[in-house]
Design goal:
single chain, four-stranded mixed sheet, four-stranded parallel sheet, 14 helices
């Protein structure tokens, strides 16, 4: 005799495997009730139907051009106000030289470049920055800026977001990362000290980008003050926008790192979530986003190589990228080090999957079978 719980799981499984969109209560049920092993089986089944055993990765460099920010979120250990001795802003030529150095040594296909909302920087800084990078390393795809940075530029210059995006694209911007999504709920963002309506602002900027043909990534930061309903609403909001323009290239759920943050000092978050919670979010992301956002990243950066491997078993199909010079996560006290291409390839092969190198737009350029 089938139990009520088994019947519920079967209904959700059949709906997901046939490409259906789960409703809010069904997603919350996955978060709060379903055994993680059942989630893994369903998530991996869906991923196998999308990309098989292939796992993509990119030769990537993260470059944080400034740490000065006037938003001052209480979950961030990286920002500075500008008065501290370790505040900095790199010049466009210094950024380009650093990218060229790493490209000459390692071969970079994607540059993830973002910093803080620095009130001193104008649009000309960013257009000069991107042009200088493209002149010095033209083959590198620029995955640049957060929606917060883009929105601030538009307000500072008294321009529309669309006009700012057009100017940035003409100067070399290729795609936009998903940073700043956090959790869209206004109640959660208020506790995180994000500006009012900043969740909707993230969605609005992304919709504008998608409408004019700029593709982006998407993210969710979990493991702080949110609950399962907040997570469900977040995923559904992404799906709603994706159905309009199909502009999201990928999704990354990443767990909050509380070290050295005001949330930790205030006692609102006392510890990071465990590995099971990380894997549960990977699996549910795959089940909910399904083929609509076909790429789920493993979020190895905050959880280590071994957890990155396990995440692939739970439905992820993109490793993310190599890491050189990243500074935001280390600001929390968690050291991530550098991760080279050969380590990624070996880590993927060791669990019986096929590593494939991609570019900034997720186009496969080499198979390492």
């Amino acid at each position: 005799m089938i139990t009520v719980e088994e019947n519920q799981i079967n209904v959700i499984s059949n709906k997901a495997t046939n490409g259906g969109i789960l409703d809010r209560d069904e997603i919350v049920y996955l978060y709060d009730e379903v055994d993680i092993k059942d989630l893994a089986i369903l998530a991996r089944k869906i991923t196998d139907s999308i990309t098989g055993r292939q796992v993509s990765f990119v030769s990537n460099m993260i470059l944080n051009y400034t740490n000065i920010c006037n938003v001052r979120c209480n979950f961030c250990a990286f920002y500075r106000t500008g008065s501290e001795e370790d505040s900095y802003t790199m010049s466009p030529i210094d950024v380009a030289k650093r990218v060229k150095l790493f490209n000459d040594n390692y071969g970079i296909r994607q540059l993830l470049i973002q910093g803080g909302v620095n009130p001193e920087l104008e649009l000309d800084y960013y257009t000069d920055l991107f042009k200088t990078i493209k002149e010095m390393v033209p083959q590198v795809g620029i995955n640049g800026l957060s929606t917060s940075e883009i929105s601030f530029i538009a307000r500072k210059e008294k321009m529309s977001v669309e006009d700012v995006l057009v100017a940035l694209r003409e100067s070399g911007l290729e795609t936009i990362p998903g940073a700043g999504a956090e959790i869209f709920s206004n109640d959660v963002r208020k506790i995180l000290r994000r500006p009012p309506r900043s969740g909707q602002q993230w969605l609005d900027v992304m919709e504008t980008a998608h409408r004019i043909g700029i593709q982006t990534s998407s993210t969710m930061m979990f493991g702080h003050v949110e609950n399962s309903y907040h997570r469900a609403d977040h995923l559904l909001a992404l799906l709603e926008l994706q159905k309009k323009y199909n502009g999201f290239l990928s999704f990354t759920p990443w767990n909050f790192e509380p070290g050295n943050t005001e949330l930790e000092r205030e006692g609102l978050v006392t510890e990071r979530v465990g590995g099971e919670e990380v894997l549960r979010n990977i699996a549910i992301s795959r089940i909910v986003l399904n083929r609509h956002i076909p790429i789920i990243q493993s979020s190895w950066l905050t959880n280590g190589v071994e957890m990155g491997q396990i995440a692939l078993m739970f439905g992820a199909n993109d490793w993310g990228g190599t890491i050189y010079d990243e500074r935001v996560i280390p600001a929390t006290g968690k050291q991530v080090g550098n991760l080279r291409k050969d380590t990624i390839i070996r880590s993927i092969k060791n669990i019986g999957m096929i590593p494939v190198e991609r570019d900034n737009r997720y186009k496969i350029i080499e198979t390492n079978s």
